[in-house]
Amino acid sequence: MSELSQRLEGIRRQLFVYADECVERLANGTTLICPLGYGAQAYLHKLFSGATKSELEQINQALGFPSPKDYECFMLFSNGATLFDNTLFLFGTRPNWSRSLAVEDIAPLSLLENIGTFQRLHPGSVWSPVGSISAARVSYSIQLRSDGNTRVASDTDDARTFPTFFAFLEVILSLFNTLADCGGLRDETGERLEKEVDALLREPA
User: Fold this and answer.
1) What pLDDT sits at residue 94?
2) Can you name the residues that pair with 33 across neighbouring β-strands?
3) CB 3.0 to 4.6 Å from 194: which of 9, 98, 121, 135, for a disulfide?
4) pTM across the whole model
5) Mapping DSSP to helix (H, G, I), strand (E, B) and coil, where does residue 128 land?
6) DSSP string for residues in 6-18
7) Which of 100, 98, 57 is nearest to 75 (CA)?
8) CA angle 157-199-83, nearest 5°?
9) Nearest to residue 79, comparing CAs of 100, 62, 98, 102?
């Protein structure tokens, strides 16, 4: 098994910590982990079928550079993800434009739309948004660079940069798993999450 495959398996295990509680696999390739009981689309984690070759080309075109190998590896595993009860988002290329609430129409937030908006607001930036974190009062942007560096940036421009996308995922999933259980975040206000992410941003790289 290659190093990338080993690290992806470690990430997969972090996502499936609560899989014993309930995993639903839909015919379209969507995997739903831990129903939360307050709506048809309410799950702890929502993973999607992997990106196709044409979708990877679409991703590279939107990013403006070839996908770093570990980011590509994740997207082949799941083309976007909505994690920890809608607080950690990894964007994908198959958004639900119909806004349907049917369980089979669950979809990630749009990578292409978010990159387009970011580029209009930050022309010439070397970073591209590939996800976000939603806490109590602050939304954090997850951004990728052509050399594979991945950073989490706050609205106030505080940021923490990780050497690779997988390095970021390993740290952030570990952090979230300390704050959540199969029912979602234990602090539903998101204030504890905000405090912990702010502390992470202040840590030396």
Assistant:
1) 86
2) 23, 45
3) 135
4) 0.94
5) strand
6) HHHHHHHHHHTTT
7) 57
8) 85
9) 62
Full DSSP string of 145-189:
-TTS-EEEE-TTS-EEEESSHHHHHHHHHHHHHHHEETTEESSTT
The mean pLDDT of 149-162, rounded to a whole number, is: 92
Task: Tell me the C-alpha distance between 81 and 110, whole Å.
Answer: 11
Do the Cβ atoms of 86 and 34 come closer than 8 Å?
Answer: no
**Neighbouring-strand partners of residue 161:** 151
- How far, in Å, CA of 19 to CA of 42, rounded? 15
C-alpha distances in angstroms, 39 versus 29, 34, 58, 114? 20, 12, 32, 26
3-class DSSP string for 16-46: CCCHHHCEEECCCCCEEEEECCCCCCCEEEE
**27 to each of 32, 109, 200, how far by Cα in Å?**
12, 20, 38
- Per-residue tokens: 106: 């669950």
d(CA 152, CA 29): 29
Q: Which of 64, 165, 60 is nearest to 124 (CA)?
A: 64
Fold of 3-202: SMI1/KNR4-like (3.40.1580)
